[in-house]
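Journal club side-thread
Mid-discussion, someone asked how the predicted structure for our own chain would compare to the paper's figures. Pasting it here so we can look after the session.
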Amino acid sequence: MNHRERVLAVLNKKLPDRVPMDLCNSASFINDPAYFALKKYLNIEGDIEQFRKNFTANYYDQRVLEALDIDFRHVGLKPPTGYQNKTYVDGSFSDEWGVVYRLLGNERAIVKYPLMEADESDLDKYSWLDPYAPGRTEGLAERARDLYENTDYAVAAHAAHNYGFFDTAWIMRGFDNFLVDLMINKPFAKHLLGKILDIFLGLHEVYLNAVGPNIHTIIFCEDYGMQNAPFISPALYKEMLQPFHKELFAFIKKKAPQVKIIFHSCGAVYPLIPLLIEAGIDVLNPIQHTAQGMDPLKIKKEFGSEVIFHGGIDVQHALSGSVEGVEKEVKNMIDVLGQNGGYIVAPANVVSGETPPENIASLYRMAANYGTYDLK
């Protein structure tokens, strides 16, 4: 099988020749220091332009993907023509949503939540971003078509926005405030989520108009889990968030019926998995098995017939440890999540800046050599 054929086999619940491999999808970028170290380790010379700025992972280098034999290539929306984040004298900056950030080492910290003091009447007055602003898809249709027609890679669409409904709402409102809204200020919460839905629908309309026929997956990123539990109960998710997921995912599948939706949520989200499947996801990322309840064997047994798994390779301990530990981790995940197919190997989150480059290389070398299937 070529790259695309093995990915499509897995996405369609068939057995591939080997487990597909992904890197630099929206949930598995490489933080800049680790990227530079990996580029040097792979003897890749010459610099490339950043594909984005003011994040901790700002490079997308196809030479790295080629060297590691990654099965996917990716496309993504751009900022509007001429758009630049506003910068302030203290070094902070604001994005299109009006959220103010500051880079603190390898972290991006929020220093201003623009709707922290808002009431419901303020939501209609707020200066929301325009999803239809020109420039977001400049050159995008051509790139997606070229990848689809002239390569054998699976074509994956990066997230239309870096954060999903829950994350965007609390980033705008403040984490504690939005959790309180979900419980006792529900009209406000639904109004806010409705505003976000309108923007997400617009972004996906623009996005899929450009790339829809020529992509195989699209990822949607949220974080619903702590290390030991979800942030919200399944009942609260079903009441307050799932309806928005359902509407957006139905829109995506109507616009591009062949596209599989990858849903990212870190942490202990086991209690939410049935509801996420009900909402319309096709692929679950990242299977953070260091979190409570996220036992890969249990999850594969219970949900493996309904959803594909993507990720799984622990970045908190295994990928930052020894080569031998990485190889053991890869074998374990392929043995469990990849049993009878249904698994795409990838880091379980963004690769930290301190990750040894030989560990990243060994992840994919081991997956390619060990993760084969007998198709006879």
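Post-session note: The domain at 3-83+115-370 is CATH 3.20.20.210 (TIM Barrel).
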